[in-house]
Amino acid sequence: MNDLLLVIVLAGRRAVLPAIAVNSVIELAEVTPVPRAAAHVAGLAALRSRPLTLIDCAAALGAGRAPTDPRTCRAVVVEHEGHLYGLLVDAADDIVAALAEPGPLGADPGPGWSRIATGRVETEAGALPFLDIAALIAGPDESLAA
Amino acid sequence: LPSRARTSRRSSARRGGQLEFAQVGERRYLTFRDRRLACVSLGDALGIENDAEASLYVILRLGWGDLYALAVDRIFDHHELVIKPLAPGIMKSGLFVGCTQLDDGTPVLVLDVAAIGYGAGIPRELHRPATIAAHAAPRTEREGLRVVLFRALDGERRAIAMSAVEQVERADASAVRRPGPDAQIVLGEEILPLAGLSGAGDLPERITILLLGDGGERIAYAAREVLDIATLTGCSSEVNGETTIVGVTMIDGETAELVDCHALFAGHVTQSAGHGSLTCRLSGDDAWMRNFLGPLIEASGYRIVAAGPADIAFVEGEMEDDEECEVRKAIRLRSAPGSGGDDSIYRYDRAGLMAALLRAGEELAA
């Protein structure tokens, strides 16, 4: 198994995203606020003349967490259903290799985590939750409604 | 918060200072050209803090003619837009149609002004903002003509009856064929006669097209830009020598030429001699009839049918009796020039053919 994973820090915890889905990791300068959007939509930026919708992953994890300041964090750029998204995380520095296929999550990882993580994966950096990009983008509202 | 409304929907912007308002319950109305326009706060619609004593209003159009006043904090600029799609999480609110970018790359949301207007409680069935009865007395003409005010290609301010305008579109100058009195424009799959080019000189790259209709025929009218919608109250005075202008009138203290829709359609419709409903059947030498004669007949306004009953039939040589009874009028052709000794017409006698077509059309219409 040598799938590459991007290690991010989200709400003080480490987690991984599939590196193949990651376009780039950027820092943001200007963010345009978007009124009347879901709480986890942090605003709008542009990347090479395409709109970049910013997703506050901490807010997607669960309500009650302080909103992430887009200017102090990293944005993991992914493309999902034809749109570019910037997933706001505290840090996104390491790329590690997976040592096995992601398996079941096992014991309840805590509020929010079971919704945004599809499983647990053994990596060079230890066992980490494997995050679901679609679930992060959908945010907490959708899964409550579903 | 920078966001923008598409200019095509925007009628004009007004400062609050010298404006008159009415208060109906919690709803504020702005009096604009003798009409009461419901005020909508953009800040409230977007759920953001805003200056409650807004003094800048953008007059917006909800479909044709329905206006409302959107209170905004500031107007930054005008821009040509390229609208890009937004992610579903942002579109879900229904307040935006997409996003665009400023020259420095900053994304700017493009507002759906219709959704904001309806969302703020403006009823959808409201088609015309009510005129104010109290002001009706001093006006001699209570029912003014509603006109679309536009800047013509030659720079003149012109007005045209709003009921004649079916649609407004933008087109490239390259879509214009044969600039001149017989100009045409290609819009989608339609080729329409194009008016409004006289005195224009070189065409700008992009022109605004007013699509005019009288219920049947359609004519395109080229313009530089649409300025406003207004109600004609003053009398118009005639102008001499200008055949497609019915007169000059005053709108908002400036002159505007009122386009003569009747003359416009009369001029262009005869060009295409519309017997549109008459059918014509071609028999005999099929390929020659279809390829040489067919386009001429269609251009004269007939619809070509392959077989069966028809209003007119072109026949080469003798026609079978059973075919003849399904045709109201037959035109016989012969392939040799000179007198044929009957009522047939030489196939390349163009004048004779056209005259026969015209005669047949008149006889059938009578």
Overall description:
The complex is a heterodimer of chains A (146) and B (366). Chain A is of the alpha+beta class. Chain A has 3 helices and 10 strands. In chain A, the strands form 3 sheets. In chain A, strands 3-6-7-5-4 form a 5-stranded mixed sheet. A 3-stranded antiparallel sheet of chain A has the order 2-1-8, with no helix packed on it. A two-stranded antiparallel sheet of chain A has the order 9-10. In chain A, a hairpin with a 2-residue loop joins strand 4 and strand 5 (50-56). With 366 residues, chain B is of the alpha/beta class. Chain B is 17% helix and 39% strand. Chain B is elongated, with a radius of gyration of 28 Å. The interface between A and B is medium-sized, with 24 and 22 residues.
Tell me, rounded to a whole number, the average pLDDT of chain A. Answer: 85
Shape of chain B: elongated
Oligomer status: heterodimer
Main beta sheet of chain B:
10 strands, mixed
First-to-last CA distance of chain B = 67 Å
Poorly predicted runs of chain A: none
Query: What proportion of the residues of chain A form beta strands (DSSP E)?
Result: over 45%
**Contiguous runs where pLDDT drops below 50 for at least 5 residues of chain B:** 126-142
Structural class of chain B: alpha/beta
Q: Compute the CA-based radius of gyration of chain A.
A: 15 Å
Largest sheet report of chain A: 5 strands, mixed
Number of strands of chain A: 10
Residue share in β-strands of chain B: 35-45%
| Strand count of chain B | 24
Along the chain, the helix and strand elements of chain A come as EEEEEHEEEHEEH
**Integer average pLDDT of chain B:** 75
Count of runs of 4 or more consecutive helical residues of chain B: 7
